[in-house]
Amino acid sequence: MDTLNMIVYLIGSFMTLASIVLCLVLFFSCKSKNARGERVEIDNKSPEDPWPLGTWIAGVFVAGTGVALMYAPADLVGYIKEGLNPLESITMLALLNGAPVWALYSVMGIWYMKHMDSKIGKLAAMLSTVLGMSISLWTGMNTVTKFIGLSFPGLKFLLAAITVIVAMISARNNLLKGMSRLAFLIFAVAFLALLSTPFTDFTFMPITGRITGAFWKEYFLGPTAASWIFWFLSWTPTVSRWLAYISKGRTMKEYIAGTMLLPTALAVVWMAVSWMYQDVIMSFNLAANIASFIPCVIFIISGLLFMTGTLDSDCKVFTEDLEALTGGKIKRRAAIPYYGLFVLFFFSLFISGIIKKPFAFNEYSSMIFIPLMVVSLWECVKLLKKH
Questions:
Q1: In this predicted structure, what is the pLDDT of residue 332?
Q2: What residues are paired with 251 via a beta bridge?
Q3: Could you tell me which residues are beta bridge partners of residue 33?
Q4: pTM as predicted
Q5: Contact 88, 211 (CB under 8 A)
Q6: With a cut of 50, which residues of the chain have pLDDT below it?
């Protein structure tokens, strides 16, 4: 890393640690009920009705957990090939997709709840959404075509366009809550599919190994840690804006438990099962391995649905923010095509190779969003002063 990236990485690491501490302190210090027995909810200026708890949990899932779990099995195999033992690999993926990352989202989400009318926050969320989803589509379509084992000109763009169009239709017809629940249901189906041994050439591989000092050095100081900081700092405005949107009516304990514990628990379980099925994961190639047909198809469908649900949720807040920033001149439904075109435009630049280093956008956007993260941390400190 160059000097500037190193500075951003160190600042991001400090803010991550501070976010974890603040979330834990808020969880234990904030009361769920006041002296009269009434619920103490987090302030939110959203005019929409609160989401029921079950639907809210599904909404947290599509905020980014589903997409992360789609990529994580491939990352697991990559870490094993790099020399980490199974327990270290599972721990690495759980940490990269669990509480440390979601602490950032939770803290900035609280800031958004307090300042929903902030133009700077809305612009940050819109920029983060377009770039983040474009990069995720680029990564996702490369993964899907690799698993399918087929490739022809335009296939990746076709799959991405279908995913974006389905998300736009869902957003236009206000199907988001149903999409959130469906994505969570498909995750459960995919999980059960991995446990259905008759469909695969399955060899049980117990989880072995131990966490060494070299592992913590890699986690805190290695290239994985650096890419993690840049990736998740750049994603923070998008996911946080969505958490603020759906979290009206939640208490602080519900909010922090749902945004930190749920992703961590799902990541640990999903990684543990993925390790036992690593032989299947490594041979996921629909064209070459018909024996993996059923779990492969379910994996691909679930992954595309995770991506669609995330696109849908991002579209919801993107169009709302665009309407607000234009003073109502561009209505939400009319703004949906703008969202789809922006995402597919940047995706096409990545997939065509015109922009050769898509992940460099994570580094640049991290630098832009750090001031917003600092303000978010201060918002949480002010909350502590009230309790």
A1: 84
A2: 41
A3: 39
A4: 0.84
A5: yes
A6: 198-199
